[in-house]
Amino acid sequence: MKILEGVRVLDFTQYLAGPTVTRLMAEMGAEIIKVETAPGGDPSRLLPMIRDGRSGYFVQQNRGKQSLCLDLRRPEAQDIVRALVGKVDVVVENFGPGVMEKRGLAYQDLAPLNPRLVMASISAYGRESPLSHKTGYDWVAQAFAGIMFMTGPADGPPMPAGLGIADVSSGVHAFSAIGYALFHRERTGQGQWLDIAMIDSMFHAHEIPLQAHSVTHGAFEPMRAGNRHPLVAPFGVFKGPTGYLVILALQLQWKGLCEAMARPDLEHDPRFVDGTQRAQHQRELDPIIEGWLATFPDNDSVLELLERHRVPSAPVLSPIEAIDHPYFKARGTVRRIEDRILGPMHIPGFPLRFSAQPELPDLVAPLLGEHNTQVLAQVLGYDAARIANLHAAGVLVRGER
């Protein structure tokens, strides 16, 4: 039995943050009914890369989901949604401000239909906040949450992380919250609403800036520091003989690094005796390390030696280099899938490991409205004639991609 087998989800999500939630749940066996808004469905069906009318972006985020495409402006579509609410355990949505309220699909509208319902709403600033009216995407969240301020060179402008870190992080936060809400429901019988903000999820990542500022009574001012850590050294990205690598040596690893470098004199050098001193003298320490790195024929030789001395280190890999790396293959962290239109493609694998569900299901991404008939017949008991009439009237919509 899969971990979420028997859990049915009504999925109103689009783009990335919301689909991350239901993508993870689908891998764990949940039944995902993805409600797509006619005529085009999830706007990510139009995001790069597109080949033969099919979006790789959409495929990656929506495998294992059933597509029910409705014209939500129609009363018949509203009736379908409300009937489905009574048949599901979870609703997930990440529409813009006010969209679910205008459609009569906010939690306060749905809870009377299903008191056991767990509903998660994901938005940039949260639904209950002084900025709930504002829209926002990933980089907006990175900026407002201070992540962008802390990223980039010390003498340069703020820089975004070059991937959907805010979207995915908020999706994972919502995913975890749903799990605990379901656990709570099993004990109490009570459903509830989860208000997940991308800003909150991103701000959660600040491990030093706030507490350091408080503990030092304002003496510490957090600031981006490029590819070195401002408070700990050596802790950063270094130029190796054949590319870049990361070396992270806290106090417990400092002796091992000195031994690896055959420089025992550095261990007790007053400039480098502890993390604070090393951070203050990084301009003297870094050239010593990079000079040592330059004596090796390649990065692998450096990393092998550092591993023997238990110094945390790693090559800076590109996503493409990961595809054929033994680690990513062994863990399934890169997954090769077959899409019915795009053919073979690589996507990130499922990041969680459960001993009770060691095998992952073979999932496919839906065509637009592909499961209209299946959902209405199997979940709501509609007969073929009724479903055909809804298609003919444009309440239900189907597409080829």
Explain what the structure shows.
By secondary structure, the protein is α/β, with parallel strands linked by helices. It has helices spanning 17-27, 56-62, 75-85, 99-102, 107-110, 138-144, 165-188, 198-203, 209-215, 251-260, 264-267, 275-280, 282-293, 299-308, 319-323, 326-331, 372-378, 384-392; strands spanning 8-12, 31-37, 50-51, 54-55, 65-70, 90-93, 118-123, 192-197, 235-240, 243-248, 313-315, 334-339, 343-348. It folds into two domains: 8-204 and 329-392, Crotonobetainyl-coa:carnitine coa-transferase, domain 1 (Rossmann fold); 235-318, formyl-coa transferase, domain 3 (2-Layer Sandwich), CATH 3.30.1540. The chain contains 18 helices and 13 strands. The strands form four sheets. Strands 5-2-1-6-7-8 form a six-stranded parallel beta sheet, with helices on both faces. Strands 9-10-11 form a three-stranded antiparallel beta sheet, with helices on one face. The chain has a two-stranded antiparallel sheet with strand order 3-4. A hairpin with a 3-residue loop joins strand 12 (334-339) and strand 13.
Descriptive tags:
single chain; 401 residues; alpha/beta; Rossmann fold; formyl-coa transferase, domain 3; 6-stranded parallel beta sheet; 3-stranded antiparallel beta sheet; elongated
CATH topology term of the largest domain = Rossmann fold
| Number of domain units | 2
Task: Strand order, main sheet: write it out.
Answer: 5-2-1-6-7-8
Strand content: 15-25%
What is the tally of helical segments?
Answer: 18
CATH-scheme architecture of the largest domain: 3-Layer(aba) Sandwich
Q: What is the class of the largest domain in the CATH system?
A: Alpha Beta
How would you name the CATH homologous superfamily of the largest domain?
Answer: Crotonobetainyl-coa:carnitine coa-transferase, domain 1
Stretches with pLDDT under 50, minimum 5 residues: none
Count the beta strands: 13
Structural class: alpha/beta
Helical amount: 25-40%
